[in-house]
Design brief:
This protein has one domain (2-143). It is 77% helix and 0% strand. It contains 6 helices and no strands. α1 runs antiparallel to α3 (63-83), α3 packs antiparallel against α4 (88-109) and α4 (88-109) packs antiparallel against α6 (127-143). It is elongated, with a radius of gyration of 17 Å.
């Protein structure tokens, strides 16, 4: 029974951590158009509109998507590390991999995304942020 409760607690921590990262990601994406105006005449709320707008976007339009991906992964890894008692690195990296899979799926759905952004996003926003989140979570845990 004790093992069941341990697995249940671990599962809940991981789920809440991933959910929190996904919600932060979505919140950052939602405010991005209020901070940096999208190209005029395009509806960025649909995949078709986003696809059509892609050639008209400058580097500034990719700042918030990158921050959303990086911060979502980072917060998930921090929470996992902070609240799990063991295997924090493994589960932080698993969170990074899950978010990376989401990033890869977006690249597949939006093939017109500039290659510089694809490379930056896939190389920097996921696994490195999961590792950083694990490190930051450990610092907070040690100092508490």
């Amino acid at each position: 029974m004790n093992t069941f409760l341990h697995i249940l607690k671990r599962t809940i921590v991981i789920f809440i951590s991933l959910f929190s990262g996904a919600m932060l990601n979505g919140a950052i994406i939602n405010i991005s158009n209020k901070v940096i105006a999208p190209p005029k005449g395009f509806d960025l709320k649909t995949m078709e509109g986003l696809q059509a707008a892609m050639p008209h976007m400058g580097p500034e339009h990719f700042l918030f998507p990158f921050l959303a991906h990086a911060m979502g992964t980072l917060i998930s890894a921090i929470l996992i590390t902070r609240f799990l008692k063991s295997q924090q690195l493994i589960f932080s990296l698993m969170a990074g991999i899950l978010f990376l899979l989401g990033g890869v799926s977006m690249v597949i759905m939006l093939p017109s995304t500039p290659i510089w952004f694809v490379l930056l996003d896939l190389i920097v926003a996921y696994i490195p942020m999961a590792l950083l989140g694990n490190k930051l979570g450990r610092v907070h845990t040690v100092n508490s």
